[in-house]
Amino acid sequence: MDTDKIIQDLNRRFAVFLPEFYQRRIIFWYDEDKKFEDKLDEVVLENAKVIELTGNNVFCRNLYEARRTNEYVQS
User: Fold this and answer.
1) pLDDT tens-digit profile of 6-34?
2) Looking at beta carbons, which pairs linking 6-9 to residues 24 or more positions away fall under 8 Å?
3) Which of 3, 18, 69, 70 could form a disulfide with 22 if both were Cys (CB 3.0 to 4.6 A apart)?
């Protein structure tokens, strides 16, 4: 899949109205083989912000891990 197609698809998904009571969408994209690592700077979305998971953004990394392993925090 090429980068332009991915960007088009993500922009299409983020353009859809959110259901009532929803405030945001979060999409995790795990690039295990790092095929798109050098393309991340090219990803500019119209209604979303791209946050790269690094060793420094602990909240995002923990949220990703919780989603990946189905370990949700409930209050």
Assistant:
1) 889 988 888 888 888 777 777 777 777 88
2) 6/36, 6/43, 7/42, 7/43, 7/44, 7/45
3) 18
